[in-house]
Specification:
heterodimer, A: alpha+beta, 5-stranded mixed barrel, globular, B: about 500 residues, alpha+beta, 4-stranded mixed β-sheet, 4-stranded antiparallel β-sheet, 10 strands, about 55% helix
Chain lengths: ~375, ~500
């Protein structure tokens, strides 16, 4: 893809592309039936084997050095075929990143060392909510040196798959929230059925109730919001990469179809209004491509203002994906609306991807607040 | 006000008063009873929603995701009990004769809760509108009375309209495209009838319907001049159901494949053929376009009403969420940006509704409902009981002269300008209101975040359901072209449409 990408990352990108072609494309429709069909456990095992769930970990644990650029390349390739796996990679990377931002790399090492399969390595997290906006947290009580969590948390992504979860909880009456690692195999947890959702069906979420569940504090008390926002800074661009992949996948399927489909005695690709739609999609794909590449390198190099690069990329590409995928359906007409083609899933997935990390309007307000408060806009 | 001659010179310029002021023009002509009926239609929709739609729509959608082959017969029987499959059949043909002006507001109400269920009952009138535009009063009378009997006996009799083919979607909506289309549904003329071969796809309510209004062609080389409409009943030899589509949304309403293999349809089930069209003023191709336009001028505003409904449903759920959810310690409803988003959504609903209401006025002035809205006809239809009509109409409907009279009145009675106005406005409402509908679903999901993507909060289903509105009844792209053709092109001599 990009000449600026190192040889090492090129290999990773090719590997991810091969993986998507071999493991994801053919069974896309079947895998998307979850929770009314089986979970694609075989895919998860293979994704684990090739290291998709450890990219954000330190190098000695199989992670990548330029971690964010690497995770973006993988997410782009994977999401062209099936964004559900992208959602899993992203959620897990988000949770790992927050643990790392909290200064608890040792905890990650321990998890990685003990993990036998993907379930052991994956960390569940409510990745569509910002607890600082809409409170979706458990209550915590300190008893001696232990933290005991109780209460309901909605929409914990991977909660039905992973062995552990990173959950927000707060002490009654206190301001901020803290993050806790919770063993999902332990007692006191009532884990619900997978929540039927718009998109990313194979990246399932569950509602859960905790009653007197011990949690391990991650970082410092009351600092959960800081770790959350720090991870949003770093990984917003990864959500943009997911959206970019979905746009590209949608464009390719639309282009192929319009070359074949004939109406009014000519291939519809030769209708100029069809070309307008295609062009609009192609431009969105191109802009997304440039934006994600540039912003992810900015993040990894720590360029001045990298946080805003990352967040702007997410806000813009996520919105473009919601627009592009609706045209992606439109170009296939009635067929685009049917599950036999990939377009309807991409449309659903794109809108779900836009909901990552909290309310979109609040993310926009947060973005401009930083500039109003003095950060440079470009 | 000023010189009459100067005024008429000024008013010859575009836009023409008659093109853009149909609501104003119909004020005086409109029977006042229509106002009450529209209000009753809304109330009826709300009652149906409370009793049936709201409690069941999510469960049905979930059930269909689990088993895409499930057919919602229970719901069809419920709708049948409520009388919605016969309500808008005119009393001339034994129905309840509800006003068409009440239909769109009613559809908007149901659509505000579930587009799938709105389609499940609305498609009945899509199928019937095909039958009606043929003005074959014998068949209209016969089939409508079967629908009414089906209501009486609790065995629903539904009507589908079968026009789309695997290789012809946009093409079948427009005769200019039809002339180059790869249509394959062939009706070969044989002694005593036609032998049909070919497939129809995406037929809403197909598997649930008893009768299918089939559009076929008796010359595949010249489909624009050889269109034929046949009434096909379940059980006839050579006709079967194919697959049921796995749709993204509107799951409550099946989209079916209809398969015809050497299917013999006797002459008595021909609704209209090229022989009948010979008698009307227009040429065959133009008459076929008029038939298509009569149908879509009625059904596209119906889709507009569905777009309005889903726009409203998304707005309603977002408003409710904003009223009960705190964001950063303050109710969402009190964040200025959220208030502006909700105002935007409210505006989208209001403009969508205005667009389909305007189409109602256009149709009442120039289209299919013109005759029904003439005051004496309207009040006879409203106040005479169906039993009185039943005494003399069935015999009259059977006569060929009645069919000929209706065709003369309705088809020849409509000018080109009137046909264009009705078709152009129908397209405008269709793509405007459905674009607004989808827009509001997007906005609602953005406002609701994590709650917005969950099935149990409804708006994700609204988004999936609404997308189909931009595709069926002509894609929104085809409808833009049709607007150009009907409302912009006629006054521009150089303009050519469908000839890029």
């Amino acid at each position: 893809m990009k000449t600026t990408v190192s040889d090492e990352l090129k290999m990773l990108e090719e590997m991810a592309g091969d993986f998507a072609a071999k493991e994801l494309l053919e069974d896309r429709e079947e895998n998307d039936k979850y929770p009314f069909g089986p979970l694609f456990e075989g895919v998860l095992t293979k994704a684990h084997d090739v290291g998709f769930f450890s990219i954000m970990l330190p190098e000695e644990m199989g992670g990548a050095a330029d971690a964010v650029n690497a995770v973006c390349l993988v997410l782009d390739e994977v999401c062209r075929a099936d964004a559900s796996l992208g959602g899993i990679i992203f959620t897990n990377a988000r949770a790992q990143e927050m643990v790392a931002r909290a200064g608890e790399v040792e905890v990650l090492k321990k998890i990685a060392a003990n993990a036998a399969g993907y379930a052991g390595l994956l960390i569940a997290f409510p990745s569509f909510n910002n607890p600082g906006e809409i409170e979706n947290v458990a209550m915590v009580e300190r008893s001696k040196d232990k933290y005991i969590l109780s209460g309901d948390i909605e929409y914990v992504v991977l909660g039905g798959i992973a062995d552990s979860a990173l959950l927000p909880a707060k002490v009654k009456g206190e301001e901020g929230y803290s993050l806790f690692l919770v063993n999902l195999k332990g007692d006191g947890l009532d884990i619900g059925e997978p929540v039927l959702s718009l998109g990313l069906h194979s990246c399932p979420a569950v509602d859960m109730s905790l009653s007197d569940v011990e949690g391990k504090l991650v970082g410092q008390e009351g600092k959960g919001g800081d770790y959350f926002e720090a991870a949003v800074d770093r990984l917003s661009v990864a959500a943009a990469a997911m959206a970019a992949g979905v746009i590209k996948g949608s464009f390719v399927e639309a282009l192929d179809y319009t070359k074949e489909r004939v109406q009014g005695g000519r291939e519809i690709v030769n209708w100029s209004e069809v070309r307008m739609l295609l062009s609009s999609m192609a431009v969105k794909g191109k802009v997304a491509d440039i934006l994600v590449d540039r912003a992810s390198r900015s993040v990894d190099c720590g360029e001045p203002g990298w946080q805003l690069d990352s967040r702007a990329a997410a806000l813009h590409v996520q919105e473009m994906a919601a627009d592009a995928t609706t045209d992606g359906i439109q170009l296939l007409g009635g067929n685009g609306y049917m599950k036999d083609y990939g377009q309807e899933k991409r449309f659903r997935d794109a809108k779900q991807i836009q909901a990552l990390m909290g309310l979109t309007p609040m993310r926009k307000l947060k973005y401009i607040k930083r500039i109003v408060d003095g950060e440079l806009p470009w | 006000m000023f010189d009459r001659i100067l005024q008429s010179t000024l008013m010859e310029k575009d836009p023409k008063f008659e093109d853009i002021m149909c609501s104003l023009l119909s004020v005086g002509k409109m029977p006042r009873g229509l106002i009450k009926e529209a209000e009753e239609g809304m109330a009826l929709g709300r009652r149906f929603n409370e009793a049936v739609v709201r409690p069941y729509s999510l469960e049905l959608d979930r059930k269909m995701q689990e088993d895409p082959t499930y057919l919602p017969w229970d719901l069809v029987e419920e709708i049948n009990r409520w009388g919605f499959y016969t309500g808008w059949i005119p009393k001339l043909f034994g129905g309840k004769g509800w006003s068409f002006s009440a239909m769109s507001p009613f559809i908007e109400e149901v659509a505000s809760e579930c587009l799938g269920i709105a389609n499940l009952l609305g498609v009945q009138y899509f199928g019937l509108s095909f039958l009606f535009v043929s003005w074959n009063t014998r068949l209209i009378d016969m089939i409508c009375r079967e629908v009414i009997e089906g209501e009486r006996t609790g065995k629903p009799c539904l009507i589908s309209g079968a026009i789309t083919e695997p290789d012809a979607g946009t093409d079948v909506e427009e005769v200019e495209l039809l002339s180059k289309a790869r249509v394959k549904c062939y009706a070969e003329k044989v002694k005593g009838g036609y032998v049909v071969n070919g497939n129809k796809i995406f037929i809403s309510n197909g598997h649930l319907s008893t009768w299918h209004m089939l559009i076929a062609y008796d010359d595949l080389e010249r489909p624009e001049e050889s269109m034929i409409m046949l009434a096909v009943k379940n059980g006839i030899k050579g006709f079967s159901f194919g697959r049921m589509e796995k749709k993204m949304g509107q799951k409550g309403c099946p989209a079916s494949e209809l398969v015809f293999e050497d299917c013999f349809i006797p002459d008595e089930y021909v609704c209209i053929s090229r022989d009948d069209v010979k008698d009307v003023r227009r040429g065959i191709k133009e008459a076929n376009m008029q038939l298509i336009d009569f149908v879509v001028s009625m059904t596209r505003p119906g889709v507009g009403a569905m777009g309005t409904g889903v726009a409203r449903g998304a707005y309603r759920e977002a408003l409710e969420f904003a009223q009960e959810t705190e964001v950063e310690g303050k109710l969402l409803i009190n964040h200025e940006w959220a208030q502006c988003m909700l105002a935007e959504m409210y505006k989208n609903v209001a403009l969508a509704r205005l667009s389909y209401m305007e189409c109602g006025y256009v149709n009442a002035l120039h289209g299919m409902t013109k005759m029904m809205n003439v005051k004496p006809v309207y009040y006879y239809n409203k106040y005479l009981p169906t039993s009185v009509f039943d005494k003399f109409m069935p015999a009259s409907n059977k006569r060929e002269s009645t069919t000929k009279l209706f065709r003369k009145l309705i088809m020849d009675g409509q000018t080109e300008e009137e046909a264009c106005r009705a078709s152009g406005w129908a397209s405008l409402s269709k793509f405007a209101a459905t674009d607004f509908g989808i827009r509001n679903c997007h906005l609602a999901i953005e406002l609701m975040g994590q709650a917005g993507i969950r099935h149990d909060h409804r708006v994700e289903k609204f988004l999936r359901d609404s997308k189909l509105l931009q595709i069926y009844e002509g894609t929104n792209q085809l409808n833009r072209l049709n607007l150009f053709k009907c409302l912009i092109g006629p006054s521009i001599p150089e303009a050519e449409v469908f000839n890029d």
